[in-house]
From TrEMBL:
Keywords: Hydrolase, Membrane, Metal-binding, Metalloprotease, Protease, Transmembrane, Transmembrane helix, Zinc. The lineage of its organism: Bacteria, Bacillati, Bacillota, Bacilli, Bacillales. The gene is rseP. NCBIfam families: RIP metalloprotease RseP. Signal peptide: none annotated. This is Zinc metalloprotease.
Length: 419
């Protein structure tokens, strides 16, 4: 149950902040947001506030912000439709009823001859007395059909009506907020737990390791490797990892005395790539530092951004196979393992996942945020948007391929963890 709760909280927070980025920038651009959804599939809970319905859905595999003008959202009244209209005090249509069986006081029934519910906002047609009438439509009018009400979206409230810059930022904001969330998670870890001093001090030397054979001991301070000054543990790790099989001269201090060692890093058996290790462990002492915590949050965000991007490059170049990918099942099982090491390790895992989600969504693939951003860039170069039908077809194919990939990855996870 603890793992289930941890998974729901982490996954829910990542999706919420991602979609909140889209939502916030859409609102700032004046776009009508019809729905803010966490999860996919059947609706579990729904709350309407203002012009947006906030929903919680059954499947914890994502979320979405549904904006006016997207996905066949536009409402059309065709010639010959018989509708009912309720007027406000200014004589404008405030409600358009598609089901004539619904009765309201003072309702006006009419047969539509022509209507524009996007730009000029009017309905023309014949009333019950066969008189021709033209009725203006309120900007916040509601269309009711089969008991379901939909707020009218004038063209200037639709996504496609906004400038290229506003549309670009509305889509970019989702991944951007994932990076911001990661920064705040790592900063919170620093504020609550303290930040590591990151000094290149050897905490423990493992038996029969290259470091032990060379004579290195617990407490040694590494000052130089291969002629390069070492000021942090990260620099030590980088120097060792990049030199698997190459003899490296080390300069260390032990009780204030300088010592020299030559250590040859061996290839790690735990890494799919050729990474050098010398068999030393590090547990940095922690210190409380408010300003340092914000710097730590930024450093960790940048570090994991580079690391995930590097691993992604290995996948693209074939150094990883598709079996190395994980879907929701794999993430759940890893969360179960990470949770055993405490709340701060779990928070670090959440920060890394948030960066991963942001990067994945920025990939220039159809149906992802990155794919849509590529179409916006193409629009900027061409000076006009790509045909919506063609773009929609590309995104549809992309969704199908992503669903297929999700099925394959999930099946691999099930095989890996349960069989």
């Amino acid at each position: 149950m603890e793992t289930v709760l941890a998974f729901i909280i982490i996954f829910g927070a990542l999706v919420f902040f991602h979609e909140f980025g889209h939502f916030l920038f859409a609102k700032r651009a004046g776009i009508l947001v019809r729905e803010f959804a966490i999860g996919m599939g059947p609706k579990i809970l729904g709350l309407t506030k203002g012009e947006t319905v906030y929903t919680l859905r059954l499947l914890p595999i994502g979320g979405y912000v549904r904006m006016a003008g997207e996905d066949m959202d536009t409402i059309h009244l065709q010639a010959g439709h018989r509708i009912g209209v309720l007027l406000d005090k200014d004589g404008l249509a405030k409600k358009i009823i598609m089901n004539q069986k619904t009765m309201y006081p003072d309702i006006l029934f009419m047969e539509v001859e022509e209507a524009d519910l996007e730009k000029e906002l009017y309905i023309k047609g014949y009333d019950e007395d066969d008189q021709f009438v033209r009725i203006g439509v309120a900007r916040d009018a509601v269309v009711e059909e089969n008991g379901k009400e939909t707020i009218l979206a004038p063209y200037d409230r639709q996504f496609d009506s906004k400038s290229l810059g506003h549309r670009f930022m509305t889509i970019l904001a989702g991944p951007l907020f994932n990076f911001i969330l990661a920064f705040f998670i790592f900063t919170a870890i620093g504020l609550m737990q303290g930040i590591p001093t990151n000094e290149p001090v050897i905490t423990e030397v493992t038996e029969d390791s290259p470091a032990a054979e060379a004579g290195m001991q617990n407490g040694d301070l590494v000052t130089e490797i291969d002629g390069k000054a070492i000021g942090s543990w990260n620099e030590l790790v980088e120097a060792v990892q990049d030199n698997a099989g190459n003899p490296l001269p080390f300069k260390v201090e032990r009780d204030g005395q300088p010592l020299d060692f030559t250590i040859t890093p061996e290839v790690s058996e735990q890494s799919p790539e050729k990474v050098g290790v010398i068999g030393v462990l590090y547990r940095s002492p922690l210190e409380k530092d408010v300003l340092g915590s914000f710097a730590y949050g930024a450093e960790q965000t940048v570090f994991w951004f580079k690391e995930i991007f590097r691993l992604l490059g290995m996948l693209v170049t074939g150094q990883f196979t598709i079996d190395a990918l994980s879907g929701p099942v794999g993430i759940y099982k890893t969360t179960e393992e990470v949770a055993k090491y405490g709340i701060f390790t779990l928070m670090s895992w959440a920060g890394m996942l948030s960066i991963n989600l942001g990067i994945m969504n920025l990939l220039p693939l159809p149906a992802l945020d990155g794919g849509r951003l590529m179409f916006f860039i193409l629009e900027g170069i061409r000076g006009k948007p790509v045909d919506r039908q063609k773009e929609g077809m590309v995104h549809f194919v992309g969704i199908m391929l992503l669903m297929l990939l999700m099925i394959v990855v999930t099946w691999n996870d099930i095989q890996k963890f349960f069989f």
